[in-house]
Write a structure and sequence with these properties.
alpha+beta, 6-stranded mixed beta sheet, 45% helix, RNA_pol_III_Rpc5, coiled coil, 3-stranded mixed beta sheet, 690 residues
């Protein structure tokens, strides 16, 4: 209070906000000049501006009559820039440096806190500034002088050389055609310094007129610095509380906020993470951790998170390997990216990493050389794959990073079964891409880990393996006999006349991979599911009578819809599509009861399809399932007759020339088909093999 009494208010000034020159008013800061000289005395020859860049260039006349002006130096500069001849393009037409160019640069990036003030008759009028530009001398004329000098030197050298030497300087020109520019390359080009410079150079100059301080036009424009209306309606910005008014005058600096230390782009605090949607949280966690048990994932997401929702989201970004979740390859390697080591595209990297993940579903150990031999990728890429999910052990290979999670497998058998179906589909793709051999497909039996490993000879290993096979065979035989006895006892107690059980010989065909029986015989580890934990409704290929009709109906519906979309399929391709169909079904579906190859082939024939006995060469490398070709004989469309003719042709020879097909179709169908129509018939009939 004492300080306020010592400093009393002696005058109150009304403040007005002028809007007439809003976003049009610039402040120019000129170089230091003598105090006795005013810029009103300087002759402004020209001025121009680029509004988008806020760039200004001014040309001012130099007083050549001033005693401080060095005339000889001015003549030398003009001679260096323009040479001896003078024309319209000359910079200095008077053969004397009689003008100077000033070029602007922005003094401040944020000018919202600055305004021009005019005080008149007890009123203060403020006009916000749109830009503050500092004008500095431009020395581009020196660049022009250097260019002239180089041209003269080149002309002198060219004049001395003979015509023969000029002919010897002919160089070969290589013509190259540019490839289509990708979106990523276009973005890099747009953000480059060269492109920005080109864009700035393309903006046209707007020429300005300079009016002196005492000019009538300047006086007229100066009136716009005053507020045109003093009513409160036009100055509502100034009707604020003292604190709000102070905040408007001195807003918090954006630059200060930007100066705060930023965390790395790949670091996210848990508080920030939990503000994101659940799916994004899981994706970020899996992308950073790469391998994680489900219990750890739930602990990171915080209490109160629904486990069912987490399971639904984690299956979108990860796959189950030995009971643990491993991030998917396409999450780590998005589309249109490449390897930092070899430049290999993301699609090839994803296939290679999927192969490594699939190998870990078969065994806890993976050999790096084996992966490199199959995937044909560079050692650095293979090492990255292995480091994501395993640990190197000396003289042993790479061991999976986490132990087998039995708790998760026991609690969520439906998830495990669904993931197993997905892995079977991935395995089918890998077999086609890498032409995997049986030694790659057969899972290795887990060896007992002991503190003191013993050296065992090859003959002893063979004898041990034979004894183990006999032991396992005896146990399986006992279990089979026991199950048959139970089934017979149930049949004697049940008196239902409409039960039909389809008998199939066990040894005639191998069961498809959709049956978990074949996995149970391996004593191995398939996608983290132990054989004893697989749900097996059928026994030795026999289904309960009440389920036979439902299974047959579901299987027939799948086969019919598949052959209506793709009229010709090999057994291998049909099994792959069936595995993908199983993966899309809910847990506990009737088709999970086990479908053998023979059941599938019988159903194909029952739906009106025929087996086409294509005479493949005996030295073919195709598998037996790829040699079995089935085709829908009558689909009810306009191409039925053409398709039947084509199938008859390919039943006699596996390779036929196009002109032979065209002639045969014309003879059998009575139509004159051209090349395009024949291609259309082939594409429609053999779309899956095209």
């Amino acid at each position: 209070m004492a300080n306020e009494e010592d400093d009393p208010i002696i005058q109150e000034i009304d403040v007005f906000l002028a809007r007439s020159l809003l976003e049009k008013l610039y402040l120019f800061q000129y170089p230091i000049r003598p105090a006795s000289m005013t810029y009103d005395d300087v002759t402004h020859l020209s001025a121009k501006i680029k509004p988008k860049q806020q760039k200004v260039e001014l040309e001012m006349a130099i007083d050549t009559l001033n005693p401080n002006y060095c005339r000889s130096k001015g003549e030398q500069i003009a001679l260096n820039v323009d040479g001896t001849c003078t024309d319209e393009t000359s910079t200095y037409s008077s053969k004397l440096m009689d003008k100077q160019t000033f070029c602007s640069s922005q003094a401040a990036s944020n000018v919202s806190r600055y305004a021009a003030a005019v005080y008149k008759k007890g009123e203060l009028h403020l006009t916000p500034l749109h830009g503050i530009l500092q004008l500095r001398p431009s020395f581009t004329y020196l660049d022009k002088a250097d260019a002239k000098h180089r041209e003269r030197e080149a002309a002198n050298e060219g004049g001395d050389s003979s015509q023969d030497e000029a002919e010897d300087d002919v160089k070969q020109i290589t013509v190259r055609f540019s490839r289509p520019e990708s979106e990523q390359a276009r973005q890099r080009r747009v953000q480059s310094y060269e492109f920005l410079q080109k864009r700035q150079a393309e903006e046209h100059w707007v020429h300005l007129h300079y009016y002196g301080l005492k000019d009538s036009r300047s006086e007229h424009e100066r009136q716009y610095l005053f507020s045109q209306g003093h009513g409160l309606a036009e100055n509502t910005e100034l009707i604020k509380s003292p604190s709000e008014y102070l905040m408007m005058l001195m807003p918090p600096s954006i630059e200060e906020e930007n100066d705060k230390p930023m965390a790395p782009s790949n670091v996210l605090s848990m508080a920030q993470l939990r503000t994101l949607p659940l799916a994004d949280q899981i994706k970020i966690l899996m992308k950073n951790v790469k391998v994680m048990p489900f219990a750890n994932l739930m602990s990171l997401l915080g209490s109160g998170t629904d486990p069912t929702a987490v399971l639904r989201c984690v299956q979108q970004v990860a796959l189950l390997v030995q009971g643990n979740w491993v991030v998917k390859s396409d999450v780590l390697y998005p589309k249109d990216t490449s390897s930092p080591h070899s430049g290999v595209p993301a699609e090839v990297l994803c296939r290679g990493r999927d192969f490594v993940m699939w190998k870990f579903t078969q065994d806890r150990w993976v050999v790096r050389k084996e992966v490199a031999a199959v995937t044909k990728l560079c050692p650095e890429d293979v090492k990255d794959f292995l480091e994501h999910m395993s640990v190197a052990r000396i003289n042993k290979g790479w061991e999976f990073m986490l132990p087998y999670d039995e708790d998760f497998v026991k609690k969520h058998p439906d998830i495990v079964q669904r993931q197993q179906m997905l892995w079977m589909g991935i395995q089918a793709k890998l077999e086609k891409v890498y032409n995997l051999l049986k030694e790659h497909l057969t899972p290795k039996k887990p060896e007992a880990q002991s503190a003191h490993p013993l050296l065992v000879s090859g003959e002893q290993r063979v004898n041990m393996a034979k004894a183990k096979v006999k032991q396992n065979y005896g146990q399986l035989e006992k279990e089979l006999q026991k199950q048959k006895a139970e089934m017979k006892s149930k049949d004697t107690r049940m008196d239902i006349p409409n039960i039909r059980i389809k008998e199939e010989p066990v040894s005639e065909e191998e069961p498809m991979e959709t049956s978990a029986h074949s996995e149970g015989l391996n004593n191995g580890l398939v996608n983290g599911l132990h054989p004893a934990q697989g749900s097996m409704d059928p026994v030795n290929g026999h289904l309960p009578g009440a389920c036979v009709d439902r299974v047959a109906q579901e299987l027939k519906a799948f086969v019919s819809s598949t052959f209506k979309k793709q009229f010709v399929l090999t057994l291998s391709e049909l099994k792959r599509l069936f595995n993908l169909h199983l993966a899309s079904l809910p847990p506990g579906h009737t088709l999970f009861s086990g479908i053998s190859d023979k059941m599938l082939q019988d159903m194909v024939l029952d739906t009106g399809c025929k087996q086409i006995l294509v005479p493949f060469p005996p030295q073919t490398a195709a598998s037996p399932d790829e040699l079995k070709v089935y085709a829908l004989w009558e689909a009810g469309d306009t191409y039925d007759q053409h398709r039947q003719v084509l199938l008859e042709i390919f039943s006699k020879n596996y390779r036929v020339r196009r002109n032979v097909i065209q002639n045969q179709l014309s003879q059998e169908c009575g139509e004159d088909l051209n090349k395009q129509e024949v291609d259309r018939v082939l594409k429609v009939s053999f779309c899956s093999l095209w």
